[in-house]
Amino acid sequence: MMQATKKILSVVAVVMATITVTAQNELIISQYIHNRYAVNPSFAGARNGLSIFGSFRKQWAGIENTPRSILLTAHAPLKHDNLVLGVQAYNQHIHQSSNTGLMAAVGYRVSTGKHQWLSFALQPGISLHKTDWTKVRLMDENTDDVFSENETSAAPLLGVGASWYGQKYFVGASVQSLLVSDDFDQRSAKFAPGDATYIATGGYLFDISDKFELQPSLLMRYKKSEDTHLDATLSGIYNNFLWVSAGYRTDGDAILGLAAQVAKRFRVAYHFEFTTGDLSGYNNGSHEISLQYDFIYKVKVVGPKFF
Fold first, then answer.
1. For residues 298, 302, 304 and 306, what is the CA-based torsion angle, rounded to 10 degrees?
2. What percent of the chain has pLDDT over 70?
3. Most-buried pick from 55, 93, 205, 222 (CB within 10 A)?
4. What's the sign of the alpha-carbon dihedral 26, 30, 31, 33?
5. What percent of the chain is modeled with pLDDT above 90?
6. Taking a C-beta distance cutoff of 8 angstroms, is the pair 136, 17 a contact?
7. Kind and range of the H or E element at 83?
């Protein structure tokens, strides 16, 4: 009886690990309000200079082996303002599994007015998945040899995006990848727009006074096999220096953010999320910190509050 119980618990542990990986197979970022290129490749070049962004995110602090991720992006317009390029790399670690992605974006934008652009972009890339089954804690160490193995696989990615933005507004839509694969069999990647994840963003900047502005923004994430997620944020901006933001995500997360333009081209941002759902009493919240630096400007930046 005891042996059977141990086997059942081992299976439960594996199933729970599988659920964790499946639920977190796509990178989540709260600071899209400071880096829209991270969720839509058509925002490449929007800062009209070479912009470098790096962030670290730890989800559900206080719980062992919860997701953590690193994101790096760089994008800029070329000498011909209509052509833009970008590159994005990330690593997400979830218990016994990790996902690493590398993508390069190429886009074309058309001027629709002074400091206004209509932009389109393609973003091919590759995703690498690794699972170390030796990290799964088993009640019975002799359950199966599979738990002494490592699995690795790779899959192609193909993202697309479109956006329209100016000094006071932005709207955009993107698909993270039209090539979709299963987490545990990435070799099965296939062109499947119906199973892809779609993201839409939008926002507007309101002038309240000479030194204070309000920027509401919205992100919607849609996938056929999951519930639609909405991420609503309201940011107050003082003297183009200090950002204070509050937001809510429909999966039950409340978000508070603080950012500062500590130098003309250097921005630091921190976001804290606290869960209001079933996990609210079992973790210390999620933390995300980022650094952004703009190396050069071809022209005066179009909208530092947006991009």
1. -130
2. 76
3. 55
4. positive
5. 51
6. yes
7. strand 83-94
Q: How does pLDDT run across 93-133, given as a tens digit for each residue?
A: 887 788 899 999 999 999 999 889 999 999 999 998 887 76
Amino acid at 265: R
- Distance from C-alpha of 32 to C-alpha of 124, rounded to nearest angstrom: 20
Q: What would the two tokens of residue 68 be?
A: 């953590």
- DSSP label at residue 175: E
Residue recorded with tokens 């994005």: 88
- pLDDT at residue 82 tops 50: yes
Q: DSSP letters of 217-283?
A: EEEEEEETTS--EEEEEEEEEETTTEEEEEEEETTTEEEEEEEEEEETTEEEEEEEEEE-STTTTS-
How many other β-carbons are positioned within 10 Å of the β-carbon of residue 285? 18
Let me know: does 71 contact 88? Beta carbons within 8 Å.
Answer: yes
